[in-house]
Amino acid sequence: MTILSIGRTSYDISCPVDEYPVEGTKYLLSEKIESGGGTAANVAYLLGKWGETSYFAGVVGSDDYGAQIRKELEQAMVKTDLIENSYEIGTPLSIILVNKKNGTRTRFDVVGATQPQLKKYEYNIAPDVIFTDGKEYSATINALNKFPKAISILDAGRVDRDLLELCKYVKYIVCSKGFAEAVSGIKIDYNNSSTLVQVYKKLKDRYPNNNIVVTLEEMGAMYSFNGEIKIMPGIKTKVVDPSCSGDIFHGAFVYCLANNFDLEKAITYSNITAGLSVGKMGGRTSIPNLKEVINYYNQKFNIVEAPPKEEVKPVEVNSEDVLPEIPDASKIVIPTATTTTPGFESTFTVGGATIPVISPDNNNGNV
Prior knowledge:
CATH superfamily: Ribokinase
Shape: globular
CATH topology: UDP-N-acetylmuramoyl-L-alanine:D-glutamate ligase
Protein backbone atom coordinates (compact mmCIF):
# COMPACT_ATOMS: atom_id res chain seq x y z
CA MET A 1 0.00 0.00 0.00
CA THR A 2 1.13 3.55 -0.78
CA ILE A 3 0.30 5.98 2.03
CA LEU A 4 0.40 9.78 1.76
CA SER A 5 0.61 11.88 4.94
CA ILE A 6 -0.14 15.59 4.49
CA GLY A 7 0.51 18.25 7.13
CA ARG A 8 2.98 20.12 9.30
CA THR A 9 6.31 19.21 10.77
CA SER A 10 8.56 20.70 13.43
CA TYR A 11 11.84 20.06 15.16
CA ASP A 12 11.45 18.84 18.75
CA ILE A 13 13.95 19.14 21.60
CA SER A 14 12.86 17.19 24.69
CA CYS A 15 14.55 17.91 28.03
CA PRO A 16 13.90 15.60 31.00
CA VAL A 17 13.79 17.59 34.29
CA ASP A 18 13.57 16.41 37.89
CA GLU A 19 10.74 18.83 38.61
CA TYR A 20 8.92 21.67 36.94
CA PRO A 21 11.18 24.76 36.88
CA VAL A 22 10.66 27.54 39.37
CA GLU A 23 10.61 31.02 37.87
CA GLY A 24 13.90 32.89 38.20
CA THR A 25 15.92 29.72 38.88
CA LYS A 26 18.88 28.44 36.87
CA TYR A 27 18.99 24.76 35.96
CA LEU A 28 21.66 22.51 34.54
CA LEU A 29 20.20 19.91 32.17
CA SER A 30 22.16 16.71 31.74
CA GLU A 31 20.43 15.41 28.61
CA LYS A 32 18.26 16.30 25.65
CA ILE A 33 16.54 14.30 22.94
CA GLU A 34 16.22 15.80 19.46
CA SER A 35 14.08 14.60 16.58
CA GLY A 36 11.61 15.74 13.99
CA GLY A 37 8.01 16.18 15.07
CA GLY A 38 4.54 17.15 13.90
CA THR A 39 1.59 14.78 13.64
CA ALA A 40 1.61 14.08 9.89
CA ALA A 41 5.39 13.75 9.79
CA ASN A 42 5.36 11.42 12.81
CA VAL A 43 2.68 9.26 11.17
CA ALA A 44 4.77 9.05 7.98
CA TYR A 45 7.84 8.17 10.08
CA LEU A 46 6.08 5.30 11.90
CA LEU A 47 4.70 3.92 8.64
CA GLY A 48 8.14 3.98 7.04
CA LYS A 49 9.65 2.30 10.09
CA TRP A 50 6.96 -0.39 9.93
CA GLY A 51 7.72 -1.18 6.30
CA GLU A 52 4.97 0.65 4.42
CA THR A 53 5.51 2.76 1.28
CA SER A 54 5.20 6.10 3.05
CA TYR A 55 5.23 9.63 1.59
CA PHE A 56 5.20 12.90 3.52
CA ALA A 57 3.96 16.16 1.98
CA GLY A 58 4.79 19.25 4.04
CA VAL A 59 7.01 22.32 4.30
CA VAL A 60 10.32 22.70 6.13
CA GLY A 61 12.54 25.74 6.48
CA SER A 62 15.74 26.01 4.48
CA ASP A 63 17.75 25.69 7.69
CA ASP A 64 19.61 23.03 9.64
CA TYR A 65 16.42 21.87 11.36
CA GLY A 66 14.70 21.37 8.00
CA ALA A 67 17.67 19.43 6.63
CA GLN A 68 17.73 17.21 9.73
CA ILE A 69 14.00 16.49 9.44
CA ARG A 70 14.39 15.42 5.83
CA LYS A 71 17.39 13.23 6.67
CA GLU A 72 15.62 11.57 9.59
CA LEU A 73 12.56 10.74 7.49
CA GLU A 74 14.72 9.26 4.76
CA GLN A 75 16.52 7.09 7.32
CA ALA A 76 13.10 5.66 8.22
CA MET A 77 12.55 4.91 4.50
CA VAL A 78 9.99 7.71 4.08
CA LYS A 79 9.77 9.19 0.58
CA THR A 80 10.56 12.92 0.81
CA ASP A 81 9.90 13.90 -2.82
CA LEU A 82 6.83 15.94 -1.80
CA ILE A 83 8.57 18.02 0.90
CA GLU A 84 8.94 21.70 -0.01
CA ASN A 85 11.53 24.17 1.33
CA SER A 86 10.51 27.59 2.59
CA TYR A 87 13.10 30.34 2.21
CA GLU A 88 10.99 32.95 4.00
CA ILE A 89 10.08 31.19 7.25
CA GLY A 90 12.23 28.83 9.33
CA THR A 91 11.29 25.38 10.56
CA PRO A 92 9.01 25.50 13.63
CA LEU A 93 10.80 24.54 16.84
CA SER A 94 9.32 22.91 19.94
CA ILE A 95 10.97 22.80 23.38
CA ILE A 96 9.46 20.09 25.60
CA LEU A 97 10.10 19.79 29.34
CA VAL A 98 9.33 16.30 30.67
CA ASN A 99 8.88 15.96 34.44
CA LYS A 100 10.60 12.70 35.38
CA LYS A 101 8.67 12.46 38.66
CA ASN A 102 5.15 12.29 37.25
CA GLY A 103 5.60 11.91 33.46
CA THR A 104 3.87 15.18 32.56
CA ARG A 105 5.18 17.43 29.82
CA THR A 106 5.19 21.16 29.19
CA ARG A 107 5.57 22.23 25.56
CA PHE A 108 6.79 25.53 24.12
CA ASP A 109 6.16 25.92 20.36
CA VAL A 110 8.33 28.53 18.65
CA VAL A 111 6.44 29.41 15.46
CA GLY A 112 5.88 32.50 13.38
CA ALA A 113 2.61 34.38 13.10
CA THR A 114 2.06 32.63 9.77
CA GLN A 115 3.11 29.22 8.58
CA PRO A 116 4.19 28.38 5.02
CA GLN A 117 1.71 26.32 3.03
CA LEU A 118 2.34 23.71 0.37
CA LYS A 119 2.31 25.32 -3.06
CA LYS A 120 2.40 22.28 -5.34
CA TYR A 121 -0.71 20.14 -5.48
CA GLU A 122 0.32 17.77 -8.24
CA TYR A 123 1.19 14.30 -6.99
CA ASN A 124 3.24 11.84 -9.02
CA ILE A 125 1.90 8.97 -6.91
CA ALA A 126 -1.47 7.25 -6.54
CA PRO A 127 -1.94 6.70 -2.79
CA ASP A 128 -4.15 3.95 -1.44
CA VAL A 129 -4.44 5.76 1.91
CA ILE A 130 -4.39 9.49 2.73
CA PHE A 131 -3.75 10.80 6.25
CA THR A 132 -4.00 14.49 7.08
CA ASP A 133 -3.64 16.59 10.21
CA GLY A 134 -5.95 19.19 8.64
CA LYS A 135 -3.34 21.97 8.59
CA GLU A 136 -2.83 21.90 4.82
CA TYR A 137 -6.41 22.48 3.71
CA SER A 138 -5.89 23.16 -0.01
CA ALA A 139 -3.38 20.35 -0.50
CA THR A 140 -5.66 17.93 1.36
CA ILE A 141 -8.78 18.87 -0.59
CA ASN A 142 -6.85 18.44 -3.83
CA ALA A 143 -5.63 14.97 -2.81
CA LEU A 144 -9.11 13.85 -1.70
CA ASN A 145 -10.60 15.01 -5.03
CA LYS A 146 -7.84 13.45 -7.11
CA PHE A 147 -7.87 10.09 -5.30
CA PRO A 148 -11.51 9.50 -4.29
CA LYS A 149 -11.01 5.75 -3.81
CA ALA A 150 -8.22 6.19 -1.25
CA ILE A 151 -8.97 5.44 2.42
CA SER A 152 -8.93 8.88 4.10
CA ILE A 153 -8.18 9.59 7.78
CA LEU A 154 -8.25 12.96 9.54
CA ASP A 155 -6.66 13.86 12.86
CA ALA A 156 -9.17 16.23 14.46
CA GLY A 157 -7.20 17.59 17.37
CA ARG A 158 -8.54 21.14 17.42
CA VAL A 159 -11.56 23.12 16.29
CA ASP A 160 -11.26 25.55 13.39
CA ARG A 161 -13.17 26.27 10.19
CA ASP A 162 -10.89 24.33 7.84
CA LEU A 163 -10.79 21.22 9.97
CA LEU A 164 -14.57 21.17 10.51
CA GLU A 165 -14.98 21.40 6.74
CA LEU A 166 -12.51 18.59 6.07
CA CYS A 167 -14.44 16.32 8.43
CA LYS A 168 -17.19 16.13 5.81
CA TYR A 169 -14.97 14.59 3.16
CA VAL A 170 -12.94 11.91 4.94
CA LYS A 171 -13.94 8.35 5.77
CA TYR A 172 -12.40 8.26 9.26
CA ILE A 173 -12.37 11.07 11.82
CA VAL A 174 -10.00 10.33 14.71
CA CYS A 175 -10.61 13.18 17.13
CA SER A 176 -9.40 14.23 20.54
CA LYS A 177 -11.56 14.39 23.66
CA GLY A 178 -11.33 18.19 23.50
CA PHE A 179 -12.59 18.29 19.91
CA ALA A 180 -15.46 15.95 20.76
CA GLU A 181 -16.53 18.08 23.73
CA ALA A 182 -16.28 21.35 21.78
CA VAL A 183 -18.27 20.13 18.77
CA SER A 184 -20.92 18.31 20.81
CA GLY A 185 -21.19 21.01 23.48
CA ILE A 186 -21.15 18.32 26.18
CA LYS A 187 -18.49 17.79 28.85
CA ILE A 188 -17.38 14.18 29.26
CA ASP A 189 -17.70 12.80 32.78
CA TYR A 190 -16.11 9.37 33.16
CA ASN A 191 -18.29 8.74 36.20
CA ASN A 192 -21.40 9.30 34.09
CA SER A 193 -21.34 7.01 31.05
CA SER A 194 -24.37 8.73 29.54
CA THR A 195 -22.21 11.79 28.79
CA LEU A 196 -19.95 9.62 26.63
CA VAL A 197 -22.94 8.27 24.71
CA GLN A 198 -24.38 11.76 24.26
CA VAL A 199 -21.09 13.14 22.96
CA TYR A 200 -20.71 10.34 20.44
CA LYS A 201 -24.30 10.63 19.21
CA LYS A 202 -23.88 14.39 18.71
CA LEU A 203 -20.78 13.80 16.61
CA LYS A 204 -22.56 11.11 14.60
CA ASP A 205 -25.54 13.40 14.00
CA ARG A 206 -23.17 16.02 12.58
CA TYR A 207 -21.11 13.56 10.54
CA PRO A 208 -23.46 10.63 9.78
CA ASN A 209 -21.38 9.19 6.93
CA ASN A 210 -18.07 9.03 8.81
CA ASN A 211 -16.45 6.43 11.02
CA ILE A 212 -15.64 8.34 14.22
CA VAL A 213 -13.06 7.43 16.85
CA VAL A 214 -12.65 9.59 19.97
CA THR A 215 -9.30 9.23 21.74
CA LEU A 216 -9.68 9.45 25.52
CA GLU A 217 -5.98 9.55 26.49
CA GLU A 218 -5.24 7.00 29.22
CA MET A 219 -8.88 5.85 29.17
CA GLY A 220 -8.56 4.41 25.66
CA ALA A 221 -10.78 5.20 22.68
CA MET A 222 -14.53 5.42 21.98
CA TYR A 223 -16.00 4.16 18.71
CA SER A 224 -19.04 2.52 17.14
CA PHE A 225 -18.98 -1.10 15.97
CA ASN A 226 -21.93 -3.18 14.75
CA GLY A 227 -24.33 -0.48 15.88
CA GLU A 228 -22.95 -0.28 19.43
CA ILE A 229 -21.00 2.56 21.05
CA LYS A 230 -17.97 1.03 22.75
CA ILE A 231 -14.80 2.00 24.61
CA MET A 232 -11.57 0.13 23.98
CA PRO A 233 -9.44 0.61 27.13
CA GLY A 234 -5.80 1.59 26.89
CA ILE A 235 -3.05 -0.66 28.25
CA LYS A 236 -1.72 -0.19 31.77
CA THR A 237 1.83 1.14 31.76
CA LYS A 238 3.98 3.57 33.72
CA VAL A 239 4.03 6.94 31.99
CA VAL A 240 7.58 8.21 31.47
CA ASP A 241 6.90 10.67 28.65
CA PRO A 242 3.55 11.08 26.84
CA SER A 243 5.15 13.08 24.00
CA CYS A 244 4.03 11.96 20.55
CA SER A 245 1.72 9.23 21.91
CA GLY A 246 -1.30 10.68 20.10
CA ASP A 247 0.62 10.82 16.83
CA ILE A 248 1.80 7.26 17.38
CA PHE A 249 -1.82 6.15 17.91
CA HIS A 250 -2.72 7.75 14.56
CA GLY A 251 0.23 6.14 12.81
CA ALA A 252 -0.66 2.66 14.05
CA PHE A 253 -4.32 3.24 13.14
CA VAL A 254 -3.39 4.20 9.58
CA TYR A 255 -1.15 1.13 9.33
CA CYS A 256 -3.98 -1.15 10.44
CA LEU A 257 -6.50 0.29 7.98
CA ALA A 258 -3.95 -0.02 5.18
CA ASN A 259 -3.60 -3.71 6.08
CA ASN A 260 -7.37 -4.39 6.18
CA PHE A 261 -7.76 -4.77 9.95
CA ASP A 262 -11.32 -4.39 11.19
CA LEU A 263 -12.05 -1.30 13.30
CA GLU A 264 -11.84 -3.01 16.70
CA LYS A 265 -8.53 -4.70 15.95
CA ALA A 266 -7.16 -1.43 14.52
CA ILE A 267 -8.03 0.46 17.70
CA THR A 268 -6.59 -2.31 19.87
CA TYR A 269 -3.29 -2.22 17.98
CA SER A 270 -3.25 1.58 18.16
CA ASN A 271 -3.87 1.59 21.91
CA ILE A 272 -1.06 -0.93 22.42
CA THR A 273 1.36 1.05 20.26
CA ALA A 274 0.62 4.35 22.01
CA GLY A 275 0.69 2.67 25.42
CA LEU A 276 4.10 1.14 24.82
CA SER A 277 5.46 4.50 23.64
CA VAL A 278 4.70 6.42 26.84
CA GLY A 279 7.02 4.12 28.76
CA LYS A 280 10.02 5.59 26.92
CA MET A 281 11.53 9.06 26.83
CA GLY A 282 11.23 11.15 23.69
CA GLY A 283 8.88 11.43 20.73
CA ARG A 284 9.90 9.41 17.68
CA THR A 285 12.51 7.59 19.73
CA SER A 286 9.65 6.03 21.71
CA ILE A 287 7.93 4.43 18.71
CA PRO A 288 7.93 0.65 19.29
CA ASN A 289 8.82 -1.64 16.44
CA LEU A 290 6.05 -3.63 14.80
CA LYS A 291 7.19 -6.99 16.19
CA GLU A 292 6.99 -5.63 19.74
CA VAL A 293 3.37 -4.57 19.16
CA ILE A 294 2.41 -7.89 17.57
CA ASN A 295 3.96 -9.86 20.45
CA TYR A 296 2.07 -7.76 23.02
CA TYR A 297 -1.20 -8.25 21.11
CA ASN A 298 -0.68 -12.01 20.85
CA GLN A 299 0.07 -12.29 24.57
CA LYS A 300 -2.91 -10.13 25.48
CA PHE A 301 -5.32 -12.34 23.56
CA ASN A 302 -3.43 -15.64 24.12
CA ILE A 303 -2.78 -16.06 20.42
CA VAL A 304 -0.21 -18.78 19.79
CA GLU A 305 1.64 -18.63 16.52
CA ALA A 306 1.69 -21.86 14.55
CA PRO A 307 5.02 -23.72 14.90
CA PRO A 308 7.16 -23.88 11.78
CA LYS A 309 6.41 -26.83 9.55
CA GLU A 310 8.83 -29.71 9.94
CA GLU A 311 10.64 -30.87 6.84
CA VAL A 312 8.97 -33.98 5.45
CA LYS A 313 11.56 -36.68 4.86
CA PRO A 314 11.02 -39.22 2.04
CA VAL A 315 9.74 -42.60 3.26
CA GLU A 316 12.12 -45.48 2.66
CA VAL A 317 10.53 -48.49 0.96
CA ASN A 318 11.72 -52.02 0.35
CA SER A 319 12.21 -53.23 -3.21
CA GLU A 320 9.49 -55.85 -2.77
CA ASP A 321 7.00 -53.11 -1.87
CA VAL A 322 7.52 -51.34 -5.18
CA LEU A 323 4.79 -51.98 -7.75
CA PRO A 324 5.84 -53.28 -11.18
CA GLU A 325 5.93 -50.76 -13.99
CA ILE A 326 2.75 -50.47 -16.04
CA PRO A 327 3.33 -52.17 -19.42
CA ASP A 328 2.96 -50.33 -22.70
CA ALA A 329 -0.46 -51.38 -24.05
CA SER A 330 0.61 -50.93 -27.68
CA LYS A 331 3.25 -53.64 -27.33
CA ILE A 332 1.00 -56.30 -25.80
CA VAL A 333 -0.03 -59.14 -28.14
CA ILE A 334 -2.77 -61.37 -26.76
CA PRO A 335 -2.46 -64.92 -28.26
CA THR A 336 -5.52 -66.86 -29.28
CA ALA A 337 -6.17 -70.57 -29.63
CA THR A 338 -5.93 -70.35 -33.42
CA THR A 339 -2.44 -68.83 -33.26
CA THR A 340 -1.02 -71.23 -30.75
CA THR A 341 1.33 -73.89 -31.84
CA PRO A 342 1.30 -77.47 -30.65
CA GLY A 343 2.43 -77.64 -27.11
CA PHE A 344 1.51 -73.95 -26.40
CA GLU A 345 0.27 -73.60 -22.88
CA SER A 346 -3.33 -72.50 -22.27
CA THR A 347 -2.25 -69.44 -20.23
CA PHE A 348 -0.01 -66.40 -20.69
CA THR A 349 1.36 -63.68 -18.45
CA VAL A 350 0.83 -59.87 -18.64
CA GLY A 351 2.29 -57.55 -15.99
CA GLY A 352 2.83 -60.44 -13.61
CA ALA A 353 -0.76 -61.75 -13.90
CA THR A 354 -1.60 -65.17 -15.39
CA ILE A 355 -4.42 -64.97 -17.95
CA PRO A 356 -6.05 -68.03 -19.63
CA VAL A 357 -6.12 -68.22 -23.42
CA ILE A 358 -9.71 -68.21 -24.69
CA SER A 359 -10.62 -69.46 -28.13
CA PRO A 360 -12.59 -67.00 -30.22
CA ASP A 361 -15.14 -69.77 -30.76
CA ASN A 362 -15.48 -70.40 -27.03
CA ASN A 363 -17.54 -67.33 -26.16
CA ASN A 364 -20.40 -69.05 -24.39
CA GLY A 365 -22.87 -67.47 -26.72
CA ASN A 366 -21.61 -63.89 -25.94
CA VAL A 367 -20.40 -61.57 -28.62
